[in-house]
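Review form for a predicted model. The reviewer records the input and the model, then writes brief findings.
Reviewer: anonymous (R2)
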Amino acid sequence: MPAPYGWALSHEWVHAIEHASFLLTGCLFWWVVFQPTGRRRLGYGAAVIYVSALAAVMGAFAAVLTFARTPWYVEHLHRTAAWGFTALEDQQLAGLIMWIPTSLVYLAAVSFCFVQWLETDGRVTSQQPLDLPPPSPEPSYVVSSMVS
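Model under review:
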Protein backbone atom coordinates (compact mmCIF):
# COMPACT_ATOMS: atom_id res chain seq x y z
CA MET A 1 0.00 0.00 0.00
CA PRO A 2 2.19 2.82 -1.26
CA ALA A 3 0.14 5.79 0.02
CA PRO A 4 -0.04 4.69 3.68
CA TYR A 5 3.61 3.63 3.47
CA GLY A 6 4.57 7.10 2.25
CA TRP A 7 2.55 8.65 5.07
CA ALA A 8 4.36 6.42 7.58
CA LEU A 9 7.74 7.48 6.20
CA SER A 10 6.88 11.14 6.56
CA HIS A 11 5.57 10.78 10.15
CA GLU A 12 7.94 9.07 12.57
CA TRP A 13 5.21 8.15 15.08
CA VAL A 14 3.14 6.47 12.34
CA HIS A 15 6.24 4.61 11.18
CA ALA A 16 6.85 3.36 14.74
CA ILE A 17 3.21 2.21 15.03
CA GLU A 18 3.52 0.50 11.65
CA HIS A 19 6.53 -1.53 12.75
CA ALA A 20 5.00 -2.28 16.15
CA SER A 21 1.90 -3.64 14.41
CA PHE A 22 4.09 -5.84 12.18
CA LEU A 23 5.87 -7.21 15.25
CA LEU A 24 2.64 -7.74 17.20
CA THR A 25 0.79 -9.54 14.41
CA GLY A 26 3.84 -11.68 13.68
CA CYS A 27 4.14 -12.68 17.34
CA LEU A 28 0.43 -13.50 17.51
CA PHE A 29 0.68 -15.60 14.36
CA TRP A 30 3.58 -17.70 15.62
CA TRP A 31 2.19 -17.87 19.17
CA VAL A 32 -0.91 -19.67 17.89
CA VAL A 33 1.27 -22.08 15.90
CA PHE A 34 3.82 -22.97 18.57
CA GLN A 35 1.97 -22.46 21.87
CA PRO A 36 2.56 -25.72 23.78
CA THR A 37 -0.89 -25.95 25.39
CA GLY A 38 -4.11 -24.01 25.80
CA ARG A 39 -7.27 -23.27 23.95
CA ARG A 40 -5.64 -20.91 21.48
CA ARG A 41 -3.22 -23.57 20.30
CA LEU A 42 -3.79 -25.08 16.90
CA GLY A 43 -3.49 -28.79 16.39
CA TYR A 44 -0.49 -29.77 14.29
CA GLY A 45 -2.61 -30.54 11.23
CA ALA A 46 -4.32 -27.15 11.44
CA ALA A 47 -0.95 -25.47 11.98
CA VAL A 48 0.35 -27.06 8.76
CA ILE A 49 -2.60 -25.57 6.84
CA TYR A 50 -2.35 -22.22 8.67
CA VAL A 51 1.34 -21.71 7.95
CA SER A 52 1.05 -23.06 4.40
CA ALA A 53 -1.77 -20.62 3.63
CA LEU A 54 0.28 -17.66 4.83
CA ALA A 55 3.32 -18.92 2.92
CA ALA A 56 1.24 -19.06 -0.28
CA VAL A 57 -0.14 -15.54 0.19
CA MET A 58 3.23 -14.04 1.07
CA GLY A 59 4.94 -15.91 -1.75
CA ALA A 60 2.41 -14.58 -4.25
CA PHE A 61 2.84 -11.02 -2.97
CA ALA A 62 6.63 -11.34 -3.07
CA ALA A 63 6.48 -12.67 -6.63
CA VAL A 64 4.30 -9.77 -7.78
CA LEU A 65 6.66 -7.32 -6.05
CA THR A 66 9.70 -9.00 -7.62
CA PHE A 67 8.34 -9.09 -11.18
CA ALA A 68 6.73 -5.62 -11.21
CA ARG A 69 7.84 -3.51 -14.15
CA THR A 70 7.73 -0.20 -12.29
CA PRO A 71 8.62 0.76 -8.72
CA TRP A 72 5.63 0.97 -6.39
CA TYR A 73 7.19 3.17 -3.75
CA VAL A 74 8.30 6.55 -5.09
CA GLU A 75 9.65 7.45 -1.65
CA HIS A 76 12.61 5.16 -2.37
CA LEU A 77 13.67 6.92 -5.55
CA HIS A 78 16.30 9.05 -3.75
CA ARG A 79 17.21 6.51 -1.04
CA THR A 80 18.41 3.61 -3.17
CA ALA A 81 21.12 5.44 -5.09
CA ALA A 82 23.41 5.34 -2.06
CA TRP A 83 23.40 1.56 -2.34
CA GLY A 84 23.93 1.57 -6.11
CA PHE A 85 20.40 0.38 -6.90
CA THR A 86 17.60 1.88 -8.88
CA ALA A 87 14.24 2.02 -7.11
CA LEU A 88 13.03 -0.92 -9.21
CA GLU A 89 16.12 -3.01 -8.39
CA ASP A 90 15.64 -2.24 -4.69
CA GLN A 91 12.01 -3.33 -4.92
CA GLN A 92 12.96 -6.52 -6.76
CA LEU A 93 15.61 -7.33 -4.16
CA ALA A 94 13.05 -6.74 -1.40
CA GLY A 95 10.64 -9.09 -3.18
CA LEU A 96 13.32 -11.78 -3.46
CA ILE A 97 14.18 -11.44 0.23
CA MET A 98 10.50 -11.72 1.10
CA TRP A 99 10.18 -14.72 -1.18
CA ILE A 100 13.21 -17.00 -0.73
CA PRO A 101 14.46 -16.73 2.89
CA THR A 102 10.97 -16.42 4.36
CA SER A 103 9.78 -19.39 2.31
CA LEU A 104 12.52 -21.40 3.98
CA VAL A 105 11.25 -20.28 7.41
CA TYR A 106 7.71 -21.29 6.50
CA LEU A 107 8.94 -24.61 5.10
CA ALA A 108 10.85 -25.32 8.31
CA ALA A 109 7.78 -24.49 10.44
CA VAL A 110 5.47 -26.62 8.29
CA SER A 111 7.97 -29.49 8.37
CA PHE A 112 8.28 -29.26 12.16
CA CYS A 113 4.50 -29.22 12.63
CA PHE A 114 4.04 -32.09 10.18
CA VAL A 115 6.63 -34.28 11.94
CA GLN A 116 5.09 -33.44 15.33
CA TRP A 117 1.68 -34.31 13.91
CA LEU A 118 2.91 -37.71 12.73
CA GLU A 119 4.68 -38.43 16.02
CA THR A 120 1.66 -37.38 18.08
CA ASP A 121 -0.67 -39.45 15.93
CA GLY A 122 1.68 -42.44 16.25
CA ARG A 123 1.76 -42.16 20.04
CA VAL A 124 -2.02 -41.90 20.28
CA THR A 125 -2.52 -44.87 17.98
CA SER A 126 -0.04 -47.07 19.83
CA GLN A 127 -1.59 -46.24 23.21
CA GLN A 128 -5.16 -47.00 22.26
CA PRO A 129 -6.24 -50.62 22.13
CA LEU A 130 -7.63 -51.73 18.84
CA ASP A 131 -11.34 -52.34 18.77
CA LEU A 132 -11.18 -55.91 17.55
CA PRO A 133 -14.18 -58.18 17.75
CA PRO A 134 -13.98 -60.76 20.52
CA PRO A 135 -12.45 -64.02 19.39
CA SER A 136 -14.98 -66.57 18.33
CA PRO A 137 -15.09 -69.75 20.41
CA GLU A 138 -13.58 -72.88 18.99
CA PRO A 139 -16.20 -74.81 17.07
CA SER A 140 -17.29 -77.84 18.94
CA TYR A 141 -17.24 -81.07 17.02
CA VAL A 142 -19.78 -83.58 18.12
CA VAL A 143 -19.38 -87.12 17.06
CA SER A 144 -22.74 -88.63 16.55
CA SER A 145 -23.46 -92.16 17.61
CA MET A 146 -25.37 -92.62 14.43
CA VAL A 147 -22.87 -93.13 11.77
CA SER A 148 -24.21 -94.15 8.47
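Findings: The chain has a mean pLDDT of 83.
Further findings: Residues 87-127 form the longest helix (41 residues).
Recommendation: see findings above.
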